[in-house]
Amino acid sequence: MATQSDKKQYDEMVKAASPASTVGVNCIKAFLVGGSICAIGQVFYNMFHNRGFAKEDAGLMVAGILIVTAIILTVLGLYNKLGKHAGAGSVVPITGFANAIAAPAIEYKKEGLVLGVGAKMFVIAGPVIVYGAMASVVVGLIYYFVK
Amino acid sequence: MNILWAFIVGGAICVIGQLLIDLTKLTPARILVLFVVAGCILGGFGWYDKLVEFAGAGASIPLPGFGNLLARGVKKAVDERGFLGVITGGFTAMAGGVTVAVVFGYLAALISSPKHKK
Amino acid sequence: MEKHIGEQTVRFANPPTITATAAIVGPKEGEGPLAQYFDVVSQDALFGTDSWEKAESELSRQTIILAVQKANLQLGDIQYILAGDLLNQETGTTFGVRDLGRPFFGLFGACSAIGEAMTLGAMIIDGGFANNIVASASSHFCAAEKTFRFPLELGTQRPPTASWTVTGDGAVVLSAQGAGPYVTTATTGAVVDLGVKDSNNMGAAMAPAAADVLIKHFQDLGIQPDYYDVIATGDLGAVGRDLLLQLMDKAGYNLHHNHKDCGLMIFDREKQDVHAGGSGCGCSAATFAGYFYRQLLRGEINKMLLVPTGALHSVVTVQQGESIPAIAHAVAFERAMSHNER
Fold it and tell me: Same domain, yes or no, for C97 and C15?
């Protein structure tokens, strides 16, 4: 039986032996990729805004374009290659959310259109919607009583 | 000029996410949840909108922007419908983005199969 | 009880012979340093099927049949198949053997499966219960990713301590009669858990189990590591190997000269982007069946100890915050029997 002190001692050894992620390089890649996705979004936003679309409609159209593009890249097997390098740079933008919906939908196709595609589609993105809805209700309640 | 700020601010938000992944061992799913909730709370106070005014897509495209969208939506709904807005506001605000992702995600599954990685 | 030695070791009275092996791998393994030693390198990761799960079963089926053919035997000559994998209640294996019509023991030891299978198979033969058995273990990268990690198309970053599941199967035919190489001794590991919780660092979780069974093996038999030309662990990878050497140093056994890790041999870590190395049931099975068996046959090595290592967690236990228990089994092979034993 391993004692607590054995485990603690081994934990120190593991920490020393395990190479850390190359944080600096990862951050630079995340910055460049994440920043580029946002800059592309801004280009589209300016375009729609100049054509007289309302702020919110332009915003939704930009999000829509980025989401569809990310899903096309997912189908082509390119988004995971981007993600391998970009890390959070391709996870945090809305494109990462789209990839998180499309990737399991494709992977679980063999388990059927209902319990495979339908159910597994939210296996990664689902928590974002659940916690987004929870947070919005909390914010809404506070706003309702404080306003 | 606003394209440059979108690049810088959007990139910086992603760097925060990268630091969380590399240094805290939080999984990407947890970070996404954290970002959406954080964006929603900051949005509730009206602070995140200031960042959006300044950085545009740099603030709205990363997931905290999604949270902010929910906060903005719920406040607007409360203004319009009163208490019922607390319930409808969040989902109304996310309807567009989520529907696009679901519809195209579904189509993606119909037309493609997973590929082997090397 | 003269066959049982010390605490955890057995010495076979009539050591079974390896009569043939077969190793079939996927495309990425076929680009690795051991490519030339595998019987078949499939360029089709689906192995002619339409799902990753079916692919692994087909891989398992083909490898077992090939091993039996190479032994110049018929399937009917095989009294038992002992095999394992770690996909969905072992369907990787069971769906592979379902049309073979031979008595079957499905074994679970995660990536230590081939060690478990060869130990039990050798015991069955030495016990006189069979003339020929097949031991086999398989894994498939895509099926493993889907089952244990993320969908393949998800844009995720793997930490440097993560490993890459081998697409491959190694099958070994053990027989009562033959000219070697022989299975001489086996030390069965206990489950060891030193509290590692990171499922992206399985080498660290498994190294203590490997150290534990190695120490028991040396103690029970009264031998030193240099008794063997090679001591090969299954899939510790770079981090796990480093930790194993440290743990063995502490226990007073020097493994620096003759230790190898199948996970570090099957891929080129510099060129193939596999991070800490290869892993999976097929990693040690295909490396032994493909590479080490040929080395033994050719006399490049005369004595070796294979120590496949397995991490015994599940997706659920990790999500519940449990640490990762591990196991390792040591199986010794000798090219020719020394005089005092025969």
Answer: yes
